Amino acid sequence: MSRKIHCLNPISQTGLKLLTADYELTDKAEEAEGILVRSASMHEMELPAGLEAIARAGAGVNNIPLDKCTEKGIVVFNTPGANANGVKELVLAGMLMAARDINGGIEWVKENKEDANISKDMEKSKKKFAGTEIKGKRLGVIGLGAIGVQVANAAADLGMKVYGYDPFISVNGAWQLSPFIEHVTDLDDIYKNCDYITVHVPLLDSTREMINKDAFAKMKDGVVILNYARDLLVNDDDMLEALESGKVHRYMTDFPNPKVTHMPGVIATPHLGASTAESEDNCAEMAVKELMDYLETGSIRNS
Ligand code: MLT
Questions:
Q1: Which residue among 9, 38, 42, 230 is best mutated to probe the pocket of ligand 1, counting the most ligand atoms within 8 A of its Cβ?
Q2: Atom 6, ligand 1: which residue's CA is nearest?
Q3: Which domains, and CATH codes, for the chain?
Q4: 230 lines ligand 1 (CB under 6 A)
């Protein structure tokens, strides 16, 4: 008899096509032996009695009730690194858009496109939208997992001086991950020295709202913050205050939180980091393989 898999979110067909004849996709969550999920929250869901494993097509597992799963012996997989390149590319776009007022320039052209004198007026706009270059600036990367390291390497390639902090990685470990990262053991060194700070940590009790009033107090005036990881890593009331005072020059975020998105220094996207064809395929493929492997052999590979 075929094993029953339920897909809580639509995930890439490239991954689903890997399911062999031993598996059947079912619409009925209650009969699932394996669940594939992207970002849907499973916290309120009644876990099916026969559920053996959940595979998340993504890195973070905060949408999955881990305690409940442990209690019931349900194994949880994620797909670390599978979407790292997609997220890295959006972070780089964010960094470049923070340095250059690309967004302001695009809006200006849209507003003035009917103006016969647009070419003449353009000269004035050049001054208004003038930016800075990221080459030579200091980037602090908090969290040196797959995404953090890729961001660090790409930023170093663009001429940035990169500092990295990760309490779970030794100096030697960080060097092995990337020779371009200057590893710091004190997070304050990132806060005090960096022009750009990007967070790439999971949402845990220890990281929740880590970017807050106390952290801002240590940062340079006019710092740029990038959050393409998890919404709740940033305290939005404190961020609003920091934007109003000019402490934060720009907040580039993949979370459209209404408390801050009205501010001119904020450019927000609706959690698009992993939304590329390639990342979606990679995540779905890895998740499906992990799930089948476990259901067939009991192997816990978490790629
Ligand atoms: C992740 O945790 O990797 C992302 O949230 C993936 C996604 O956007 O689904």
A1: 38
A2: 58
A3: 3-80+277-297 (3.40.50.720), 84-268 (3.40.50.720)
A4: no
Q: What is this structure's pTM?
A: 0.94
Q: How far apart are CA 251 and CA 197, in angstroms?
A: 10
Residue 303 scores a pLDDT above 70: no
Model pLDDT for residues 164-204, shown as the tens digit of each residue: 999 999 888 888 889 999 999 999 999 999 999 999 999 99
Residue 241: closest CA among 216, 209, 207, 210? 216
Residue of 240, 232, 235, 230 whose CA lies nearest to 261: 240
Ligand 1 neighbour 83 (Cβ under 6 A): yes
Helices first, then strands: H and E counts in the chain: 11, 12
200 Cβ below 6 A of ligand 1 = no
* Nearest CA owner, ligand 1 atom 8: 274
